[in-house]
Write a structure and sequence with these properties.
two-stranded antiparallel sheet, mainly alpha, elongated, Fumarate_lyase_CS, Adenylosuccinate lyase like protein, (S)-2-(5-amino-1-(5-phospho-D-ribosyl)imidazole-4-carboxamido) succinate lyase (fumarate-forming) activity
């Protein structure tokens, strides 16, 4: 473990629970290379619509897309107090021929918001096959134990017989609803568009000398850059519900989590079989559920056209996709 990881705060969401692919998807490398890709899309669209942008300039940008000097960007941000312009300056220094046309006419939201939502889309694409695999394995479990009787509970009091397989089908039903909802969210994502400040496109109208049709066409041509719009999903609610059932069943040893030979159940009582995996799922599920309230508060206090008092907590929301 490097010195920087030891001496700097690391969130458990990434260091303990985040998969390698999710961590890479929400990494700074992915984020800022996507910013640069969006600037390339913008330049190509503007060139197609007649602006004086050359193939050489675009080729220079493409050649340097992934060569990001993060230290230089950090120094620039200390001077400018502006994250997007810091990266514009660093990219421009690497691409002297393309420098005049990088981020031409755009506002920060063009790269900031679109990149956030491209990462969300890619995160959902990572999540969906994992959810489908979970449903498949539960389905096989339900089929195997469809006739095995077990005592059912209502109000957590002994009720009447059900079967192990029947109980599992209730979990599957909830997860299938999630699968459909997440697929719909992903498929309905829309590109935020190429806008100027306050979303008026006035800067692009000036660049294209009052040609409204070219400004409209710019949005369509830049659509290659991504898909935008997000709705809150409920997978965390059902995950918590399922894992709560498992924790209750573990109390009477009706079901148990895997227990490795080298595993220690408790520092004081090594023999204990605590349902640690289910407990972790329940703990993690509370974070995005709480974030729904935070999102509503943020949406209700956006002040006229917009404000940036969501700049910290929206990053926290993106992080929650990692688990």
């Amino acid at each position: 473990m490097g010195e920087s990881m030891i001496s700097n705060y690391q969130t458990p969401l990434s260091s303990r629970y985040g998969s390698k692919e999710m961590c890479e998807n929400f990494s700074d490398g992915k984020k800022f290379s996507t910013w640069r890709q969006l600037w390339i899309y913008l330049a190509k669209a503007e060139k197609t619509l007649g602006l004086n942008i050359t193939d050489e300039q675009i080729a220079e940008m493409e050649a340097n897309k992934d060569k990001i000097d993060f230290q230089a960007a950090a120094k620039e941000e200390m001077l400018t107090r502006h994250d997007v312009m810091a990266h514009v300056h660093v990219f421009a220094a690497q691409c002297p021929k393309a420098a005049p046309i990088i981020h031409l006419g755009a506002t920060s939201c063009y790269v900031g918001d679109n990149t956030d939502l491209i990462q969300i889309r890619d995160g959902l694409n990572i999540l969906l096959p994992k959810l489908a695999r979970c449903i498949d394995r539960l389905s096989k479990f339900a089929e195997k134990y469809k006739s095995l009787p077990t005592l059912g509970f209502t109000h957590m009091q002994p009720a009447q017989l059900t079967t192990v397989g029947k109980r599992a089908t209730l979990w599957i039903s909830d997860l299938l609803s999630d699968l459909v909802n997440i697929q719909r969210v992903r498929d309905d994502l829309r590109f935020r568009g190429v806008k100027g400040t306050t979303g008026t496109q006035a800067s692009f109208l000036a660049i294209f000398e009052g040609d409204h049709e070219k400004v409209k066409e710019l949005d369509k041509l830049a659509e290659d850059g991504g898909l935008i719009l997000l709705r809150q999903k409920s997978v965390e609610k059902f995950t918590a519900s399922i894992c709560t059932d498992l924790r209750l069943l573990a109390h009477m040893k009706e079901i148990e989590e895997p227990f490795e030979k080298t595993q220690i159940g408790s520092s004081a009582m090594a023999y204990k079989r605590n349902p640690m995996r289910s407990e972790r799922c329940c703990a993690l599920a509370k974070l995005p559920m709480g974030n729904i309230i935070d999102a509503l508060i943020t949406a209700s206090t956006q002040w006229m056209e917009r404000t940036l008092d969501d700049s910290a907590n929206r990053l926290d929301f993106l992080y929650l996709l990692k688990f």
